[in-house]
Amino acid sequence: MQVKPPAYTSWYWRKVCQIRDTFDEALQQQLWSGHIGREYSIAKGYEWLREKGDKVQWSGLVWNKWSFPKHSFLVWIYQHGNLNTNAKLFSLGIREDDTCFLCGQDRETLEHLFFACRYSREVLGSTGSHLWNRIPQTNIMGLRLSRRGTKEEKGVINVVINASIYLIWQQRNSCRIDECVLRPSKLVKQLTQDMKIRFSSLIQGNGDGGDYVRKFMAGDECNS
What we know:
Blueprint: H1 11-29, H2 33-36, H3 42-49, H4 59-62, H5 69-79, H6 86-91, H7 110-116, H8 118-127, H9 140-145, H10 151-177, H11 184-198, H12 200-204, H13 210-220
Helix pairs in contact: 5-10, 8-11, 10-11
């Protein structure tokens, strides 16, 4: 039995009814028998309904147990190229200027904002020469894959990269809205404090990269 919501109802209620009809049709025609089996569950129904694509190479670098969820979410948007930079908004006719907010010199593309902008380069350079010894690369994925080390060391580096992207984007928005921005040295200090909070349990432990984290937080890998 299909449900036809009135046209004046909200879009999400219409979407709920549409999904209900999809499941009802699938039940009648047994379209999911090979996927779900006889025992139905919400999880199995969700897996059947959603479209599955190929697993991307960077998923584990963005979504990991150490990164702050808000950092991972923003980097996920970045990886899809969906951050609303000035260059993107200018191409859509939303802004009249595509200049970078942080340096005021070049077009604000993703590549410029996180790699070529003098503000971002100073932040990333101050984070540690060992972390950013390949800073001329023009994408985050290439920077991650260029790193060598143990699994724990790479995990720490991924967390710092995610946090750096988040904080630089945050300062970019602060400059756009409030017309003020932290000095790079202040931002690096904030980044270090955030990492101390996130790694506190590892610093106290002996495993899971604890030695490398202690070395990192002691300054050997930061503010060098």
